[in-house]
Amino acid sequence: MTVAPEAPGARRPPWPPRTELPGLLPRTEAPGGERRRTLTALRDTDVYAVVGSLAAALALTWLLFTRLLPFDGVVGFVVTAYGFFLLLYALLVSFDESGPAVVDRIAAAVVRSLGLLLVAILAVVVVYALVEGRKALVHLNFFTQDMELAGPLEPLSVGGALHAALGTLIMIVIALVVTVPLGLVCAVFLNEVPGPFARFVRTIVEAMTALPSIVAGLFIYATVILGLGMDQSGLAASFALSVMMLPIIIRAADVVIRLVPGTLREAAYATGASSWRTAWHVVLPTCRSGLTTSVILGTARGIGETSPVLLTAGFTSETNLDPLHGPMVSLPLATFEFVKSPEPAMASRGFGTASLLMALVLLLFVAARVVGGRGPGHLTRRQEHRRVTASRRDASRFAERGAGARPSADAKPPVPAADRPDGPSGPATPQSSDPFRTRPGSSS
């Protein structure tokens, strides 16, 4: 190869050419020269836009309702102010952001405001029940007595809601014993055994989720009480609650099991596991927290019903712990009976009973979360202890196997084939230390 000579007078660089990498740009600048935007942190302009929009919306609404238009009412004031807030917020955001960013901010504002509205409604309901029932909740007898000796004119120091609380616990426990196994098995069937029958069952379950409670009560009343001759009791009420809870548990569990990755099932099948072992050891533990949520949803649906309990269990003012015989009352039914009375004391008992019902639901929710709210792979202390014990047992067994396979220090090395008495091709016979033992084929 011929190299062209350099032109006379050409300047050589003071150093040989090399590859230069671009330096690190400042954190506030992007490669295109634009200012880098922070998507996670809350900026000052966002706070200013929200506060300014809210203040301007309240001022405009006040001006319309008090000076310009003959409007009044709290609901109208709130709705109008909210509409002004969205418009002004979109206007302020459009000064700094593009069209998609403005739409995103408006959608985020709507979603968050709806969330705050739901929380506010829940807080109002809880606080109102506690405030109205505070006169009954401060008495200890409200939690330890029933209404057997208390009438409508008795003071709050006599009588309580013990019979309703015990009745609710008995009914809901029996309903959970019936619905939880059936609901989980049906949900596993819908996912693990697809086919026309599974689609038919899923359609029926979806239709039963909107079943009116009075229909469930009438069904159990016609089949169990009138058909089989059973008395009105807590067991019949539990069956009515089970009819309402079962579709909720099946539908929610079905959705949760669908979210389990198919690769986990394929890995289990690859190891040779059967379908039921895969469902028991892989699918159900993976979605354990979601299944707990489905049980909570079903419990919340059944524990607050009134009409099925009234039709199938009747009403009583005494404590009845026998679910097979005699009428039994629940907390929602007792709340209804107390509140419809014109006496202030009975109304206070009704709101106190409603507060007791909310406390019971909260207690069941916490218990369910503690028992089954762990995520996949999270073990209890007992399970971790069993796993550690099994690992140590396996390690000791492997160590014993390794020690048995390893030759000991006192073992003699094998005799070479050339030095054997029978020659290279003869069998290697063990050397005996017995001097009186003769070789095979020799005379004694």
UniProtKB/TrEMBL annotation:
Keyword list, A-Z: Cell membrane, Membrane, Phosphate transport, Transmembrane, Transmembrane helix, Transport
Ranges of biased composition (kind: Polar residues): 428-444
Location of region: Disordered: 1-35, 374-444
Composition bias, Low complexity: 1-10
Ranges of Basic and acidic residues composition bias in the record: 391-400
Boundaries of every ABC transmembrane type-1 domain copy: 165-372
Role of this protein: Part of the binding-protein-dependent transport system for phosphate; probably responsible for the translocation of the substrate across the membrane.
Protein name stated in the entry: Phosphate transport system permease protein PstA
Native source species: Streptomyces hyderabadensis
This protein's encoding gene: pstA_2
